[in-house]
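User: I'm writing a tutorial on reading structure tokens. Could you give me a worked example: one chain, its sequence, then its tokens, then a sentence or two explaining what the tokens reveal?
Assistant: Sure. Here is the example chain.
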Amino acid sequence: MSDRIAAAFASHGRSAALMPYLMAGFPDLGTSREVGEACIDAGANLLELGVPFSDPLADGPVIHAAATEALKAGATLHGVLRVCESLAGQLPVVLMVYANVVLAGGDRAFVERAAAAGAAGLIVPDLPHDEAAGLREVCDEQGLALVPLVAPNTPPERLARIGADARGFVYTVSVAGTTGERTDLRPELRDTVKRVREASSVPVAVGFGISTAEHARQVAEIADGVIVGSRVVRAAGEGGPDAVAEVVADLASAL
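And here are its predicted structure tokens:
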């Protein structure tokens, strides 16, 4: 399944692959499935599917609120994986999930369920690299890519270790902090991406703070993938699948 991620980065035919993030179960499971379909129809190359969690430390207010609403609406891991299953036949789906959810029933059981639902990879933002070897081994066995995150302030020695162990792509956080829309991209981002490229052989995708077509265009000049979260989730809350389709089409047109 992780081979699908490599194929998506190799065959998008644009300046960079576009990966919208959507929160599974927001505003409800059925609508989140329709939001995923809208992303696909509007030009997404991969999908990042968030698993709602009550204490999402890496997420800013928009995604945090969406997770809360999803849980209130009754989203469960079973329901999230059904959304994944419905979308995974069309594009690679990478689950963004917090460590407690993975470990609650055992990492092997979680990975096997994710693989059965067609997931191509996992992002576990609160799992330190030093503690990820066991989960990475299980993911490798099941054909899922355990995608690591790096930040602008990741020390060189640690970046080298993370880059060497990376599967699928390296998720490069554009700013230190949480997700969320921002006005401008940091001028240091180019250097950050360069350092990540030198540390790993897999594609480099950039997320956190990217919300406009101009942001996407700028990131595509230096990276292999563009990840857009809060802007897409906000559109899902304000106007549903139609609004998301408009946002994703605008982003895709810039790549």
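What the tokens reveal: The beta strands are 17-23, 47-50, 93-96, 121-123, 145-147, 149-150, 170-173, 204-207, 225-228. The chain has a mean pLDDT of 93.
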